[in-house]
Amino acid sequence: MHKPSIGLRRLIQTGVFVGALTASVAGAAADTIKVGILHSLSGTMAISETTLKDAMLMLIDEQNKKGGLLGKQLEPVIVDPASNWPLFAEKARELISKDKVSAVFGCWTSVSRKSVLPVFEELNGMLFYPVQYEGEESSRNVFYTGAAPNQQAIPAVEYLISEDGGGATRFALLGTDYVYPRTTNKILRAFLNAKGVADEDIMEEYTPFGHSDWQTIVSRVKAFASEGKKTAVVSTINGDANVPFYKELANQGVKAEDLPVVAFSVGEEELAGIDTAPLVGHLAAWNYFMSVETPENAEFIKKWHAFTKDENRVTNDPMEAHYIGFKMWVQAVEQAGTTDVDAVRQAMYGQTVTSLTGTKAVMNVNHHLSKPVLIGEVQDDGQFETVWQTDGPVIGDAWSDFIPESKKLTANWTYPWVCGNCEKPKF
Amino acid sequence: MRQHHAYRLSRLFTIISLTLFLAALSVINGTNALATPAERDAALELLTEKSSKKRATGIDVLAASGDPAAAPILAAMADGDLYFQKTDNRVVIAKKQNDGYAIVDPISNEVLGVLPSSDLKKIRVNNRLRRQIRGVLGGLNLSHPNAEKRLVAASGLQKSPDPALRPALKKAFAAEADEDVKAAMAIALAVIDSKPEAAPEDRLAAIELLTDSDATEARIILTQLASDTEKDASIRAAATVALDTVEDRLFYYQALGSIFQGLSLGSVLLLAAIGLAITFGVMGVINMAHGEMVMIGAYVTFMIQEVFRSVAPEYFGLSLALAVPAAFLASGGLGVIMERSIIRWLYGRPLETLLATWGISLILQQAVRTIFGPTNREVGNPEWMSGAVELAGGVLLTYNRIWMIVFALAVLAGVWALIRFTSMGLEMRAVTQNRRMANSMGIRSGRVDALTFGLGSGVAGMAGVALSQVDNVSPNLGQAYIIDSFMVVVFGGVGNLWGTLVGAFSLGIANKFLEPVSGAVLGKIIVLVAIILFIQKRPRGLFALKGRAVEN
Fold first, then answer.
1. B256 CB-near residues (< 8 Å, 6+ apart)
2. Quick check: A253 and B396 CB within 8 A?
């Protein structure tokens, strides 16, 4: 009877030991909070999205140095959807169900967002989307930290109509042929009509992704501008097609004081490949410029240069959107005391973060931010200089007031509405 | 802080009252009194204001002061070189240097030393102020000794007309000796005279003058006068007639412009397709990696420009001349290696060749992405390729496109001469026409294959140098051109360089005439459908090879 009892004790000891071991291994795994990064690192969109991945890594690294979140370290999980829209959905599913990430920061084009949307809604994930977009959407599972049309397109056109912006009464709307430019231009056309601009004074023109031969379009815009009214160009041209577009403008001698071009998808990163001296005075509308002079921004740029070990790297608006989104998520998780998606979502509403432009960014119940709108002029060093800005933050509007069927809709994810596109409250 | 504000406010008040007083004074005198330093300083003080309205006033006051320094100060302001010192609001002209800004006093032109950027604040201009300065400078520089400055002044006045400057402009017009400047001044006068405030007979005379002008401004004014906003019916009628005349004349220029644009698009297609006309047209290899040869040529250009930037930036203009042979050797060498290691095992098996070369294209793309990164690389345009020459009536021929056409034709001529006149060309033709016969004549057909493929790839590399000037240099560059290249070669007729030439230019011109009507996206689709239909009718393309060689 002696031996077996020792054996039993041994067995129990071993069992406890193994159990403790497993528990500690499991404990180590549970000691990190996983954050998904869903940005294309190859393909056509890599140009813009790679920077956002780096920005996220910097933010996570910084948070970890501060002691992490809820006493745990943050662990970035990077996947590469390769500018391939269906692959975005696949990678999103992998992040949520296999890697069990607490939140995902990602996407750039509206196509990619539309592709992952059903996945996030089905698996109840949480996506932070950092890019200006066409609006007309509000999902319970997405926080839109980029600009809605009323935070970018509408104020930009109002500026062009104003005396300082040149008093334009005729508009050429140029865009890449996909959902964002087409929807934005639909809203702009309705807005311009409401301002008394007739349809014959609006020219709309679309080009494929990566269009490189801009001769015809630029000459046509010049002819359109020579018909007696002050004209301005509104560009929703996306991606690297902008480089040959601006080169053609410069070569054909289009001067900003005669025919200003205001762009919604051209930031510091896109200008990096162009000689901007002939483009001085052309405009861009964003919620942030690298040239903004605030202590927050100076510190951010310093950290960015230190993190990338490159003094020439620029910062841009979507990076600021990730900065705000990430800080808000951290605050919401701390407030909720958990990373549970439903609890964090409730804690998100009303979170405020001091943005890099020094204003208080607030997360509203329609999942859009309140941010100031800035209009900047291209400078000869590839930077923008703010020439106009709104007095205070503007609340992002998911559904445009200028499209009659959208005007009726409300996005409000708190009781009693709890809905992204309803005409009356659900409860 | 508050005290400072109060101080500034009171300063501002004095300045404004002073300006008003001086303005009143100059009106009474009827001439611009010579500037007093106080007046000029008041104007400079206004320029440092935050509100753009006050800066606009400052510009007017400065211009009206008659101070000789006014024109250079305003020119510097328009160029974004005008700053003020944060400590004492002193206005200075600053130029960026390595270690800060070199400061010059705008009035005495005295060099004041170098200041860090943190001590300076830029005097901001927006598009409205730029237009205002252009008009004001036009007035100030009308009697400038330099004819070029006078021309700029006159064309500035065309765009930003100021009726108050009419007497000065008339005087300058009468005194002007230079033909071009005189013509520009005449239009500027006509633009001012066409305004509703002018006398009706002056307005009719202005319309007549504008009818003969090809300037864009003339058309803008005439359209305005012919529209409903014009109250005077006789003016409206005259302007409508004039506008028709102008538009008839411009129609021809615009057609010429469209043909030029078509030729330039055609030359891009031609460049991309010549290499393929050799590898696919002559050798029959379906080379899906053709686009990547173009891309490698573009990256060679980038590397050579990087070397020039760091070693000899003053000779940057020559970088392209060096890039052409370098790209030829790099892509050509790669082509030879590809042919010897892979493609030669696959002759006569088109499907396998297609898959293998497609695989190579993916490998090359990813290799470039790994080495150079996924983002676009900046390839600069040398000075002689920037800008444009104006045909007439606002139709512009840009230099980069002109050079592109010249280069494409030169490359085509070179390849044609090589195939037609050299012994290598002879061997190439012999091998493609009848390999076994050529072998038995002592031609080493393996070597000829490698060289032919190398030639085709090398030409693609040279195309990459040219394309780097009009498109983005990224790992995806080649993909954008592979389909177009096949389209041109098949449309023009396989194995025929003339077919490639005619095919490229006719596709380019067709595209450019369709684009204004149908839009860029639909235009491309229409051209593609048209080619498919054409190939159904004539499967061998425009210029079909005849004879026994074809039957193999």
1. B391, B395
2. yes
B399 and A251 within 8 Å at the Cβ level: the answer is yes
Helix (H, G, I), strand (E, B) or coil at B106: coil
A237 touches chain B (CB under 8 A): no
A230: contact with B, CB 8 A cutoff: no
pLDDT the model gives residue A298: 95
The DSSP string of B376-418 is -B--PPPGGGSSEEEEETTEEEEHHHHHHHHHHHHHHHHHHHH
What stretches of A124-200 show up as alpha helix (H) in DSSP?
153-161, 179-194
Nearest to A216 among B122, B261, B374 (CB): B261
Percentage of chain A exceeding pLDDT 90: 65
Task: Give the pLDDT confidence score for residue B456 in this predicted structure.
Answer: 93
Write down the number of H helices and E strands in chain A: 13, 18
Q: Is the pLDDT of residue A24 over 70?
A: no
**A420/A182 Cα distance (integer angstroms):** 22
What are the phi and psi torsion angles at A33 (to 5°)? -105, 125
- pLDDT at residue A59, rounded to an integer: 97
Task: Give alpha helix (H) positions in A338-381.
Answer: 341-348
Residue B31 pLDDT: 42
Distance of CA B315 to the CA centre of its chain: 21
Q: What is the structure's pLDDT at B475?
A: 87
| Sign of the CA dihedral running B481, B486, B489, B494 | positive
Mean pLDDT by 10 residues, chain B (552 residues): 52 54 45 63 85 86 82 87 87 84 86 84 86 85 84 83 83 85 86 82 84 78 81 85 86 86 92 89 86 95 92 87 95 95 89 93 91 81 83 79 94 93 91 86 91 94 92 86 90 86 93 87 90 89 65 46
User: Which residues, at least 6 apart from A332, have a Cβ–Cβ distance to it below 8 Å?
Assistant: A344, A345, A347, A348, A351
Query: In B61-85, which positions are buried (b, 16+ CB within 10 angstroms) versus exposed (e)?
Result: bbbbbbbebbbbbbbbbbebbbbbb
Q: Which amino acid is at A231?
A: T
Q: In this structure, are strands A394-395 and A231-236 parallel, antiparallel, or unpaired?
A: unpaired
- What lies within 8 Å, CB to CB, of B249 at 6+ separation is B214, B393
pLDDT of residue B153: 86
Hey, what amino acid is at A81? Answer: P
Q: What b/e string do you get for B371-394 counting C-beta neighbours within 10 Å, with b at 16 or more?
A: ebebbbbbbbbbeebbbbeeeebb
Which residue is closest to A273 within chain B, CA to CA?
B378
C-alpha–C-alpha distance, residues A383 and B213, integer Å: 39
Q: What is the pLDDT of residue B389?
A: 84
Least Cα separation, residue A40 to chain B (angstroms):
10
Higher per-residue pLDDT: A223 or A296: A296
Provide CB contacts within 8 A for A288, sequence distance 6+: A316, A317, A320, A321, A355, A356, A357, A374
Shortest CB distance from B376 goes to which of A205, A240, A248? A240
Taking the Cβ of residue B369 and every Cβ of chain A, the question of whether any pair is shorter than 8 Å is answered with yes
Q: Is residue B138 within 8 Å of B156, Cβ to Cβ? A: yes
Of B393, B72, B42, the residue nearest B215 (C-alpha): B393
The pLDDT assigned to A28 comes to 45
pLDDT of residue A325: 97
Reference B380, options B480, B270, B298, B268; nearest CA is B298
Strands A369-371 and A202-207: unpaired
Q: Does any CB of chain B come closer than 8 Å to the CB of residue A68?
A: no
- Identity of the amino acid at B339: E
Cβ-based contacts of A295 with chain B (< 8 Å): none
- Calculate the alpha carbon distances from A73 to A33, A34, A61, A65, A66 in Å: 6, 9, 9, 9, 10
Report d(CA A185, CA A204) in Å as an integer. Answer: 8
